[in-house]
Design brief:
The chain is built from seven helices and eleven strands. By secondary structure, the chain is of the alpha/beta class. The protein folds into two domains: about 130 residues, 3-Layer(aba) Sandwich (Rossmann fold), CATH 3.40.50; about 110 residues, Winged helix-like DNA-binding domain superfamily/Winged helix DNA-binding domain (Arc Repressor Mutant, subunit A), CATH 1.10.10.10. The strands form three sheets. The protein has a five-stranded parallel beta sheet. Strands 6-7-8-9 form a four-stranded antiparallel beta sheet, with no helix packed on it. A two-stranded antiparallel sheet has the order 10-11. Helix 1 links the parallel strand 1 and strand 2. The longest helix has about 45 residues. It is elongated, with a radius of gyration of 30 Å.
Length: about 290
C-alpha cells in the first residue's frame, strides 16, 4: 500500500456489481477506501465518508441516456461541497462517440475499455493529485487574502489614528473606540456605524445611522483624504468586491456616496465633504 494514498476515498457508481468488482482490486491495492453505489437513480444514498474522486462506469445505449448521465455527474460533483468533485468516466468501446458530449456535461476525464490496470491506477493518482493541488491553492489563496485583509486593517488603523479626537493616555484602557473628526461639528463612529452631529452645546448630539457598507466606504475615504478615489478602488478596497470594471463599480458605489452626502452635507447637491472630481472619482475633504 501507498501511505500517501490510503486516506483517499473513491466512489464507484455502476449499474452492476460485477463492474464495480472489476475496479476494486486495482484501487484497493493502492490503499484507497471504496464506496460503491450500484444504481444511477437519484438521490445518491448516504455515504459514510465524503469521497475524493468519483468513478462512473456508464453503459451508453442511446443519446437519450445523456440526461441521466448529466444528473449523476452533478450529484457526484456536489459531494465535493465547496469545490466540485472530479469525476472519471469509464465507457465501453462502442461508446467512444459520446466522449465529446460527456466532457460538455462536466466529466473530468474518460477511460475507454479495455483498461489496463496500470493506466487506471495512474489516472486515478493524477486526478487525486490535481484535486489536492487545487485544494492547497485555495488554502494558500485564502491565507493570502486573510493576510492582505489584516495588513489593510492595520494600515487603516494606523492612518485613522491621526484623526482620532479623544485619545486616552496609554495607561488608561479605552472603554469605547474613539470617533473620527470630519468637521468641527461632525464626527464618525465606525464601531456604532453612525455620524455624530454636535448641536449647540457639546453635550447635545444627534446621531445618524449608517449601513455597514456606508461605514466601510467612509472609513476608507477618511484614510485617504484629499485624494481622488475611483469607483473601482472603493468597490474593491472598501467593499471587498473582486475584479469589476469602472462602470460596474460605479453602479455599486454611487448610490452609497449619494446617501452618505444626504446624511453628511447640508446641501447634498453642492457637497463639500464628499466631492466629485469628474473623470477621477470622489474626494474626501475634511475640515
Amino acid at each position: 500500500m501507498h501511505s500517501e494514498s490510503n486516506f483517499n476515498t473513491i466512489l464507484i457508481v455502476a449499474s452492476e456489481a460485477a463492474k464495480a468488482e472489476r475496479l476494486k482490486p486495482v484501487l484497493l491495492d493502492e490503499g484507497y477506501r471504496i464506496e460503491t453505489v450500484l444504481s444511477f437513480s437519484l438521490p445518491l444514498p448516504r455515504l459514510e465518508v465524503k469521497p475524493d474522486l468519483g468513478i462512473i462506469w456508464f453503459p451508453y445505449a442511446s443519446p437519450d441516456a445523456l440526461p441521466e448521465l448529466e444528473n449523476i455527474i452533478q450529484a457526484i460533483q456536489a459531494l465535493g461541497q465547496g469545490e466540485p468533485l472530479q469525476v472519471l468516466l469509464i465507457i465501453d468501446q462502442d461508446g467512444t462517440r459520446w466522449v465529446e458530449p460527456s466532457f460538455r456535461l462536466g466529466i473530468t476525464d474518460i477511460l475507454t475499455r479495455p483498461i489496463h490496470p496500470l493506466v487506471l491506477r495512474q489516472r486515478v493518482r493524477l486526478l487525486l493529485k490535481a484535486r489536492q493541488t487545487e485544494e492547497l491553492n485555495q488554502q494558500l489563496k485564502r491565507k493570502v487574502e486573510n493576510q492582505e485583509r489584516q495588513r489593510m486593517m492595520s494600515a487603516l488603523e494606523a492612518a485613522l489614528q491621526m484623526f482620532r479626537t479623544d485619545t486616552p493616555p496609554a495607561s488608561e484602557p479605552r472603554s469605547a473606540p474613539a470617533s473620527f473628526s470630519i468637521h468641527p461639528h461632525l464626527q464618525f463612529d465606525p464601531q456604532q456605524h453612525c455620524l455624530i452631529f454636535k448641536v449647540g452645546n457639546l453635550a447635545d448630539c444627534r446621531k445618524v445611522e449608517l449601513t455597514a457598507d456606508q461605514s466601510s466606504i467612509l472609513m476608507y475615504m477618511i484614510c485617504h483624504p484629499n485624494r481622488a478615489l475611483s469607483n473601482r478602488e472603493i468597490a474593491q478596497a472598501a467593499l471587498g468586491y473582486g475584479q469589476l470594471d469602472e462602470i460596474q463599480s460605479r453602479s455599486i458605489v454611487r448610490p452609497h456616496i449619494l446617501r452618505l452626502r444626504r446624511k453628511m452635507d447640508e446641501d447634498p447637491e453642492q457637497p463639500e465633504i464628499l466631492r466629485t472630481i469628474r473623470g477621477s472619482g470622489y474626494v474626501f475633504s475634511p475640515e
